[in-house]
Specification:
Layout (H helix, E strand, L loop, with lengths): L5 H44 L5 H7 L3 H4 L4 H10 E7 L13 E7 L9 E10 L7 E5 L16 H19 L4 H4 L3 H13 L21 H19 L25 H12 L3 H12 L22 H4 L22
Antiparallel strand pairs: 1-2, 2-3, 3-4
Helix pairs in contact: 2-4, 2-10, 5-7
Length: 339
């Protein structure tokens, strides 16, 4: 095959870029149609699982490793005792300025000893950046959790993340576009960075996920809209066969992740929204199938409610263990504590 000159290589590259955008359009249409088709089924499922005690606690007990690795024994106990409802929704599905990839994850809790909130909702917006080599992905605002006295399972991380986010918003309103250079000087910035540094060797609670902002940096709706408009203009030029000059990006030495309390937050959210939510019945059935497995190779030590360093079994807590009804001699298999 004869070698192509640079102009031909560039032309093929532009063709691939146009094709890539067409694949992206198809993917968005699939999300819209899937959402429409599944909506009545999710409504029907909600009516059924409302009659099943601890349905969602058992679903999270059987969560895939990518999620389970972030659920500590103390988190499992919260889910088992007070998680009542769970819902994922595509809140920008019909918004022409939004994205079908955006979604919210909503947990409904009963009265409990940990926090005052009955609902904790985490929203994720799919946004595009003007810099960062065209970065695009999920961003979120920290959620304020009303922890009861002495019950903050995140050791202050969610409160500190929320405080910093609010301080950044106030700074942006008053700085006339020069806010980013001043963010690292905020006392809330230094306070959160210090908390994260001190917590690196500890097992972080799943509830710290509610403090997640971005795997890169926060992107506003306005910036994302500008980036989308610029991308659409470049696409039209490519379709007309015109040469597109990529705008140079400024290198930044700023460490945006220095104050990110849950760096894998977007990955965790995606698995929950795109796997656990649509496949909840499968995970629930797995919990019951596990009750029928042989226990000879599993650890069956008694669960000590006051031993925070022990192991948690949600099925045992909610009365779904294999022998919970018939025998007190052989408790159900334990969920291993994360290290």
């Amino acid at each position: 095959m004869a070698a192509q000159n640079p102009e031909e290589v560039l032309a093929r590259f532009e063709e691939l870029s146009v094709l890539e955008s067409e694949f992206d359009d198809v993917e968005l249409e699939i999300i819209r149609k899937s959402n429409a088709l599944n909506a009545p089924l999710y409504k029907k499922r909600a009516a059924v699982v409302a009659k099943i005690p601890h349905f969602w606690a058992l679903v999270f007990e059987q969560s895939p490793p990518e999620v389970d690795n972030f659920i500590q024994p103390s988190d499992s106990k919260v889910f088992a005792e007070c998680l009542e409802t769970f819902e994922v929704s595509r809140f920008e599905i019909d918004d022409p300025k939004g994205s079908p990839r955006s979604f919210s994850i909503k947990f409904g809790f009963g009265d409990n000893e940990y926090f005052e909130d009955r609902v904790l909702e985490k929203k994720f917006w799919f946004r595009k950046a003007l810099d960062g080599d065209g970065w695009q992905g999920l961003v979120s605002e920290p959620v304020k959790i009303s922890w009861k006295k002495g019950k903050d399972m995140t050791s202050g991380l969610t409160d500190a993340a929320y405080d910093l986010y609010q301080a950044k918003k106030n700074l942006a309103d008053a700085a006339n576009g020069d806010a980013k250079a001043k963010e690292s000087s905020l006392p809330e910035y230094r306070a959160l960075a210090k908390k994260i540094e001190l917590s690196e060797e500890a097992s972080i609670s799943f509830f710290a996920w509610f403090g997640f902002v971005s795997s890169w940096r926060w992107i506003s709706a306005e910036e994302s809209e500008q980036a989308s408009k610029a991308e659409a203009e470049r696409l039209e030029k490519r379709k007309r066969g015109e040469k597109v000059e990529e705008e140079p990006t400024e290198d930044s030495n700023e460490d945006f992740q220095e104050t990110e309390v849950f760096p894998q937050g977007d990955e965790l959210a995606t698995i929950i929204a795109e796997d656990m939510w649509p496949s909840a019945i499968k995970y629930f059935k797995h919990a019951h199938e596990a009750d029928d497995e042989e226990l000879s190779d599993l650890e069956v030590e008694d669960y000590d409610e006051d031993d925070s360093d022990g192991e948690i079994d949600i099925r045992g807590l909610v009365g779904k263990g294999r022998n919970s009804k018939d025998s007190s001699e052989s408790p159900p298999p334990k969920k291993q504590r994360k290290t």
